[in-house]
Amino acid sequence: GDLRQLFEIVDGDGSGEVDPDEFVEAMFRMKNTEAKTATKFVKHLVTRLDNEAKDMRADLAVILAGLTERTEKALQMLEPQNQVVDKPLKDPRLAR
Questions:
Q1: Tens digit of pLDDT for each residue in 20-66?
Q2: CA-based nearest residue to 43, from 27, 54, 62
Q3: Do 3 and 44 form a contact (C-beta atoms < 8 A)?
Q4: Helix (H, G, I), strand (E, B) or coil at 32
Q5: Do 23 and 10 contact (CB within 8 A), yes or no?
Q6: How far is it, in rounded angstroms, from Cα 48 to Cα 6?
Q7: Residue 70: what pLDDT?
Q8: CA atoms within 13 A on the CB side of 96
Q9: Which helix (H) or strand (E) holds 28?
Q10: For residue 71, what are the contacts with CB-CB under 8 A and spacing of at least 6?
Q11: Between the chain's N and C termini, which has fewer beta carbons within 10 Å?
């Protein structure tokens, strides 16, 4: 309701997105008209951005854990091929 209406007011060109210029213009208008409205709006935006950042961090942690697991499995598969040979290799054709 109210949030949707506020978004539509800030989204001046009706694109469905709020670009930096629209945001600054809306903040300027609110500052010069109703300080309480602007404060509530900014608080809402900051809270939303903080929640989105938390969600992104959680998503990245899951992705990183998956990548770590896959990397460890790949390294385990390669491990026998990477073992150091203690004896020099000899060409059997050269054996006497």
A1: 888 888 878 777 776 677 677 777 778 888 888 999 999 999 999 99
A2: 27
A3: yes
A4: helix
A5: yes
A6: 14
A7: 94
A8: 0
A9: helix 20-33
A10: none
A11: C
At 47, the amino acid letter reads T
Q: What does the pLDDT read at residue 62? A: 94
* pTM summary value: 0.42
- Residue 7 contacts residue 17 (beta carbons within 8 Å): no
What is the DSSP annotation of 47-87?
HHHHHHHHHHHHHHHHHHHHHHHHHHHHHHHHGGGGPPPSS
Which DSSP helix (H) or strand (E) runs through 35?
helix 35-78
Tell me the residue type at 36.
K
Query: Tokens 């990397």 — which residue?
Result: 71
**Cα within 13 Å of Cα(62), Cβ side:** 5
Please tell me the predicted confidence (pLDDT) of residue 96.
59
One-letter identity of residue 93:
R
Beta carbons of 43 and 51 less than 8 angstroms apart: no
Give the integer Cα–Cα distance in Å for 61 and 73. 18
